[in-house]
């Protein structure tokens, strides 16, 4: 196989009503057989990402995916293939049917941040970490943000200051990322972005925070989500401004979650 050619792959993070997500094991005969992954596979000629996802879930697990939300993308080079992964989230109400393993694979429900199965496909480690980031947070820019709902992973993130404990998740402007990565673990740094350049710089951070205080912020974020889908979760920070423009449905457009500013 020519491993230089980029192969388009879709994978779905399928949820049940308890907020758990599905992992399946790769069947015998495939590369990385026995490793755990999100169900999915290669996009075939003429398919959209959604139709490919629907076909794969039907073939592998016998269920119907009604809708799916674009989430993260990632490029990864394996020995056997160079893949462009497109991860989608499929909410509990966005699929129907009875799960059954149609390819002699195993499957199991997992809770974010509490994996009980191993090994994972190598490209998936940051994707699994991203699932532990809550989708609703709130707080103030100067003091930090925290999870809103008891049903979601509990997380607090604080503005960076020197000497802050390495285990704390912090946020700082994207252009300080390189410097801060020498002081603090990169997988605990969230990057604040408001330009294309910063968006690109932030692709090695744990997450992006995109503050919205003007129509231009909305327009640019819409463009970036469409043209340069992120490989790290994007949190839309809705600032308390006089902005009267209705906000797009960010969660359906590729954002991971929303941060609401408190007075
Ligand atoms: N399905 C899936 N594939 C993933 C994930 N993460 C990841 O790196 N991959 C990689 C592994 C493979 O190299 C590639 C998917 O190709 P595949 O061989 O499983 O695709 P397929 O089901 O269409 O297989 P086939 O018909 O060619 O046998 O993407 C993931 O979470 N799910």
TrEMBL record:
GO biological process: DNA repair; DNA replication
InterPro entries reported for this sequence: MutT-like (IPR047127), NUDIX_hydrolase-like_dom_sf (IPR015797), NUDIX_hydrolase_CS (IPR020084), NUDIX_hydrolase_dom (IPR000086)
Cofactor(s), names only, from the UniProt record: Mg(2+)
Keyword flag Metal-binding: yes
Enzyme type, top EC level: hydrolase
PROSITE patterns, sorted: NUDIX, NUDIX_BOX
Name of one Pfam family that matches: NUDIX
GO molecular function, one term: 8-oxo-7,8-dihydrodeoxyguanosine triphosphate pyrophosphatase activity
EC number: 3.6.1.55
Entries under CDD domains matching the protein: NUDIX_MutT_NudA_like (cd03425)
Domain Nudix hydrolase: 5-135
Source organism superkingdom: Bacteria
Keyword terms: DNA damage, DNA repair, DNA replication, Hydrolase, Magnesium, Metal-binding, Mutator protein
Catalytic activity: 8-oxo-dGTP + H2O = 8-oxo-dGMP + diphosphate + H(+); 8-oxo-GTP + H2O = 8-oxo-GMP + diphosphate + H(+)
SUPFAM superfamilies listed in its UniProt record: Nudix
Protein family (similarity comment): Belongs to the Nudix hydrolase family.
Protein name (database record): 8-oxo-dGTP diphosphatase
Native organism: Snodgrassella alvi
């Amino acid at each position: 196989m020519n491993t230089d050619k980029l192969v388009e792959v879709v994978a779905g993070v399928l949820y049940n009503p308890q907020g758990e997500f599905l992992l399946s094991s790769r069947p015998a005969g495939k590369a990385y057989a026995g490793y755990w992954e999100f169900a999915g596979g290669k996009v075939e000629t003429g398919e959209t990402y959604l139709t490919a996802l629907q076909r794969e879930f039907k073939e592998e697990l016998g269920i119907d995916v009604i809708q799916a939300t674009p989430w993260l993308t990632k490029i990864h080079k394996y020995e056997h293939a160079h893949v462009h992964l497109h991860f989608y989230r499929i909410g509990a109400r966005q699929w129907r049917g009875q799960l059954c393993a149609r390819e002699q694979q195993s499957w199991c429900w997992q809770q974010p941040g509490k994996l009980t199965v191993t090994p994972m496909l190598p490209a998936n480690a940051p994707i699994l970490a991203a699932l532990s980031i809550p989708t609703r947070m709130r707080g103030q820019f100067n003091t930090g943000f925290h999870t809103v709902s008891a049903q979601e992973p509990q997380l607090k993130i604080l503005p960076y200051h020197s000497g802050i404990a390495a285990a704390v998740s912090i946020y700082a402007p994207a252009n300080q990322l390189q410097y801060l990565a020498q002081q603090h673990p990169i997988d605990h740094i969230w990057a604040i972005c408001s330009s294309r350049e910063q968006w690109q710089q932030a692709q090695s951070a744990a997450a992006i925070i995109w503050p919205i205080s003007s129509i231009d912020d909305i327009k640019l974020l819409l463009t970036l989500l469409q043209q340069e889908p992120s490989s790290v979760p994007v949190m839309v920070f809705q600032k308390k401004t006089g902005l009267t423009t209705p906000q797009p449905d960010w969660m359906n457009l590729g954002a991971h979650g929303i941060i609401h500013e408190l007075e």
